[in-house]
Amino acid sequence: MFAGSNRSFNLGNFGFKHIFLLVTLLFYFNISRLFLDVVFLNLIPDRLEALKDFPIHARADSIDFLSNMAAIFLCVSLSYGYFLLEKGNLSPSQYNLRVQILGLVAFLPLILYFLLHITWLKQTDSSWDFDLELLHEPAGWQITNEWPFETESQDSRWEFYQIGVFNSLRVVFLSIICSTILGIVVGVSRLSRNKILSNLAKIYVDIFRNIPLVAQLFFVTVWFLTVLEPFSELKNNNFLEWIYWSNRNIIFPKIEVGTLSYLILGVSVLLVYRIFTRFSERYLPTDYIEDKRFHHRPFYSLGKKWEPVAVDFLFSFSILLILYGITNIVDWNYKFSLSEILNQGHFSFFVLGFVLIYLSSHLNKNLDHDGLNNFTDNLVESSSNFRFQIRVIVFAVALIFVYSSLSIDKPNLITERDGKELSWGLWKFEEGTYSDVTSVFLVLMIGLTLYTTAQISEVVRGSIQALPAGQIEAAISVGLSPYQRLKLIILPQALRSMIPSLTNQYLNCWKNSSLAILVGFTDFYSILNTIVNNAGHAVAIFSLILITYQAGSLTISVIMNNINNSVTKVKI
């Protein structure tokens, strides 16, 4: 102990925490000084053309001094900020604000380094030019897997990129749907009392979870090439001459929307039935909340009875807008504006539909919060039978309209010309009579599905096992069958803890789709990679790749977060 007149310092109080803080500050000082050296180097006059009018400049012989002083200033600022936070006496909002300010100060050298260094690279290295005008130039090559579009080598690279994004979306969407269904089945099977079923599910998970996806895609490709017969045997591999298959592709009848109005009318029947059902089963509790704020409930003036109906109508209208836009995806110009909406631009209708569906979902959430979206469960047998009959009639009417809107052509395989048999290499299907699914699309979809299913099944199994045993025992005591226990008790409660983990698996599925290049499927990654090899501008193109993957990941996260909020709105 060191003693003065009125003060004393106990060396024991200077513990591990303070030593750790000093070491951290020393490490931060050296790292930040490296970044600040480059920052002040780029502030030398006439070095960066973009900063020629910047009022602050640095001299070349004072860079070391400036970086040292700036690093010391940052260390002192961070130490003082940490002292204030440790002192306490702050509200949660004040605490969060000061933590954010400290984080910004701590990362300030890194931020300035990237901004100025990227500016320097753009000035001195042409590969760092972020101009994407090259995407508007003709591609100069042909792509496969272009359904439902038709492309030529003279089409722009931008059009090829859009087709690649659509290809990625459709293979990932189908993989997510299939892997979710199979994952639930396998996950539940792992907990089955049937030892054979449980062990089979365990073997599946152990195999497909532990083998890399690249190897799985290789095995699926080999399976397609060896098990399915070649194109020369196509005549013998068909179902009533409506569906043909080979190791090259699978041929289906050509199905197009001939009369769009009938399709919209059929879907409208289902949406109107949904509005009517929700209206008839909705009841108003006595403790609902009166909230007249326009941004919270813009249809408040319609009254508590018709306000939810207006929101349901807005949701239905948005579905019809999306349907109108997606059925004309080939004619999209990818420009959204008010004039495009007035001119019935298909892409603008599609975007507007998504905006309105988000708005209606937000308004529905507000109605749920205020107690205006409560529904009865009518368990009277006669009433249930009547509703089932009405439902069958509605679906039958909708199906008739949808079927009437479709145009179906039977595939016409051409094997002869002028009465002479052609060799199998010259066989082809008549244009406009068929649709095909290529083997590489199926390989990628099956590979992603098998791999993601193994991951999802473990999420399902873990979520079910996390439930209290009393829930299942209570379900057994009231006489519920195993299927009823699973449907009404187990899965609804397990879903609360299942969704966050499912989100991670869906994100992995989206990012794993980049392996399409290994099987020859033309997704946007393989297309942009080809553009880099042909035209250069690697930094700009790979930045576009990163932005595309980030946009897809954020979209999946937003959708799953909304589903999670809907599932967890009732606290237990």
Verbal overview:
The protein has 572 residues and is an alpha+beta fold. It folds into 3 domains: 2-124, no CATH class; 157-225 and 439-567, MetI-like fold; 260-401, no CATH class. The protein has helices at 16-41, 63-87, 92-124, 157-190, 195-210, 213-227, 260-281, 307-326, 338-342, 346-370, 381-405, 439-465, 469-477, 482-512, 516-519, 524-535, 538-567; strands at 2-3, 8-9, 238-239, 243-245, 249-257, 282-283, 374-375, 406-409, 413-414, 416-417, 420-421, 428-429, 434-438. Strands 3, 4, 5, 8 and 13 form a 5-stranded antiparallel sheet that branches. A two-stranded antiparallel ribbon has the order 1-2. Strand 3 and strand 4 (243-245) form a beta hairpin. The radius of gyration is 31 Å and the shape is globular.
- Rounded Rg: 31 Å
CATH fold node name of the largest domain: MetI-like fold
What is the first-to-last residue Cα distance? 55 Å
Q: Which CATH C-level class of the largest domain is it?
A: Mainly Alpha
Question: Could you name the CATH homologous superfamily of the largest domain?
Answer: MetI-like
Low-confidence region ranges = 1-9
How much beta, percentage-wise?
5-15%
SSE order: EEHHHHHHEEEHEHHHEHEEEEEEHHHHHH
- What does the main sheet amount to? 5 strands, antiparallel
How would you classify the helix and strand content by structural class?
Answer: alpha+beta
Dominant shape: globular
Give the averaged pLDDT, no decimals.
Answer: 83
Oligomer: single chain
How many distinct folded domains?
3
